[in-house]
């Protein structure tokens, strides 16, 4: 993230006022404060949570003002941390998933985030209950009809610029834009209005992992005070709003939230990530009509110009067909072109090798090929399939499960398009605030965004409806 001009000046001034040092409450005091927090949450009628970069540090994504934060390191002339895994494979922290449980229990009414990592949406927070003040690195939006598209890859532009994709809504087709703010962009009006509305209604605003220094966002929690609400701050550094808070907890966010969730008798569910891809088989008769020229492609389900970041390579082999040569596709587009006698059918075996950060190395898919135009085209109920995949993954304690969710035929050129959903990560969270079966996510893209000056606020066109359901292409 980066700042608008006025916000940069505010940041420079605040750095001198509020130190970067971390503070830890003594264990017995921390326990007392966690019990108070759990009691406040239990009694709350309209709980609003306000999150900052500190809730994602346990995901491997650095904060900004901590001792090892982005701005701290830059100010000290130190190098930013190198990426260990791709940013797009980051998994939600224990805190992210705890907030999901609070929402499902009907306790959390609204969530406001300053983060652009997309982990709140990825974790399962409903879009209509989330305001992302600074945008989302994995979101595109249509400026014409307002539809939002949550991607499995980091959108290539910043600053509300046009991307290389178009809206897939019928009779629209407008060019999509990214949602992450550049230096000069204002906070999004729609998101800010919702955030202000819920803060005014809140009896508790719980601030997690934020230094509360960037205006005007940092003043949102104060809106609750006018109606008799209370502010609770959980952060390792002191903040300018500490004096306004009814409770300030200096401790690791994951540890604090785990303690509160346990006292509330809530169980944090595993995180299961499901990714989509499509297999496209295109065919055409040769000029002499003796052969079929066919093309196999493994592609993103997000559109023809979208990358497929979670697949590293594709191995193609043929069952019971020794005269066909196997192939290894190592670069996108994952595409294989061959010629076959028209009357000959066969079965392809595709081994999809996953990239770093996925919970299993690969999956295999068998595809029968007879060069007939498919008649069993369908578009299944995706939510029910996703739920079944999640349940199976949790029960088996492993990932790699996959299912077909859509199949369609295209007459010209003759093609069969099949969309698959596959489980690529399952993460369990234990009471010790640690993540099991998870891969360390990356901060490498954070480094690139800082160097390129990504903004912390954005504008949303007026009059566009907020969508709670995402499209994938």
TrEMBL record:
> What does the UniProt entry say about where the protein is found?
Nucleus
Keywords attached to this Swiss-Prot or TrEMBL record, sorted alphabetically, are: Metal-binding, NAD, Nucleus, Transferase, Zinc
Q: What cofactors does this protein use?
A: Zn(2+)
**Matching SUPFAM superfamilies, A to Z?**
DHS-like NAD/FAD-binding domain
What are the binding positions for Zn(2+) in this chain?
142, 145, 167, 172
Q: Could you tell me one molecular function GO term of this UniProt entry?
A: NAD+ binding
Q: Name one GO cellular component term.
A: nucleus
Q: What is its EC number?
A: 2.3.1.286
What spans are recorded as compositionally biased (Basic residues)?
Answer: 457-473
* Polar residues bias (residue ranges): 436-445
- Catalytic function, reaction form: N(6)-acetyl-L-lysyl-[protein] + NAD(+) + H2O = 2''-O-acetyl-ADP-D-ribose + nicotinamide + L-lysyl-[protein]
- Pfam families per the UniProt record, alphabetical: SIR2
What residues does the Deacetylase sirtuin-type domain cover? Answer: 27-267
Q: Which InterPro entries match?
A: DHS-like_NAD/FAD-binding_dom, NAD-dep_sirtuin_deacylases, Sirtuin, Ssirtuin_cat_dom
The ranges of region (Disordered) come to 434-473
Q: Where is the active site?
A: 134 (proton acceptor)
Query: Mostly located where?
Result: nucleus
**Entry-linked CDD domains:** SIRT7 (cd01410)
The processes (GO biological process) annotated in the record are:
negative regulation of transcription by RNA polymerase II
Q: What is this protein called?
A: NAD-dependent protein deacetylase SRT1
The species this protein belongs to is Morus notabilis
């Amino acid at each position: 993230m980066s700042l608008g001009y006025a916000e940069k000046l505010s940041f420079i001034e605040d750095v001198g006022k509020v130190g970067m040092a971390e503070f830890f409450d003594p264990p017995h005091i921390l326990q007392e404060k966690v019990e108070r927090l759990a009691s406040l949450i239990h009694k709350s009628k309209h709980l609003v949570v306000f999150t900052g970069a500190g809730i994602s540090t346990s995901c491997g994504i650095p904060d900004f003002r901590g001792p090892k934060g982005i701005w701290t390191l830059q100010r000290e002339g130190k190098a930013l941390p190198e990426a260990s895994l791709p940013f797009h494979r980051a998994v939600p922290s224990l805190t992210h998933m705890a907030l999901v449980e609070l929402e499902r229990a009907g306790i959390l009414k609204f969530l406001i985030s300053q983060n652009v990592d997309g982990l709140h949406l990825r974790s399962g927070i409903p879009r209509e209950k989330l305001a992302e003040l600074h945008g989302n690195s994995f979101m595109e939006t249509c400026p014409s009809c307002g539809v939002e598209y949550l991607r499995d890859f980091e959108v290539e532009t910043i600053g509300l610029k046009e991307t290389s994709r178009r809206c897939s809504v019928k009779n629209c087709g407008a060019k999509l834009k990214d949602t992450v703010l550049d230096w000069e962009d204002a906070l999004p009006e729609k998101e800010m209005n919702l955030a202000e509305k819920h803060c005014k209604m809140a009896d508790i605003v719980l601030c997690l992992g934020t230094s509360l220094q960037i205006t005007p966002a940092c003043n949102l929690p104060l809106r609750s005070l006018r109606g008799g609400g209370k502010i609770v701050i959980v952060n390792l550094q002191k903040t300018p709003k500490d004096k306004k808070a009814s409770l300030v907890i200096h401790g690791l966010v994951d540890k604090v939230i785990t303690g509160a969730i346990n006292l509330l008798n809530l169980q944090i569910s595993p995180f299961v990530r499901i990714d989509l891809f499509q297999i496209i088989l295109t065919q055409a008769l040769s000029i002499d009509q003796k052969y079929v020229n066919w093309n196999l492609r493994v592609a993103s389900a997000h559109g023809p110009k979208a990358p497929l970041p979670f697949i590293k390579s594709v191995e193609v082999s043929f069952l019971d067909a020794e005269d066909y040569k196997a192939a290894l596709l190592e670069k996108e587009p994952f595409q294989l072109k061959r010629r076959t006698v028209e009357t000959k059918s066969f079965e392809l075996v595709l081994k999809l090798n996953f990239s770093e950060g996925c919970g299993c190395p690969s999956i295999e898919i068998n595809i029968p090929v007879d060069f007939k135009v498919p008649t069993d085209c369908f578009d299944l109920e995706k939510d029910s399939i996703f739920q079944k995949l999640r349940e199976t993954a949790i029960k088996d304690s492993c990932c790699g499960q996959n299912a077909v969710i859509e199949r369609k035929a295209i007459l010209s050129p003759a093609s069969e398009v099949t969309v698959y959903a596959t489980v690529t990560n399952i993460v369990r969270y234990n009471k010790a605030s640690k993540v099991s079966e998870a891969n360390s996510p990356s901060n490498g893209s954070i480094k690139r965004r800082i160097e390129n000056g990504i903004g912390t606020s954005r504008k949303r066109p007026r009059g566009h409806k907020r969508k709670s359901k995402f499209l994938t292409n």
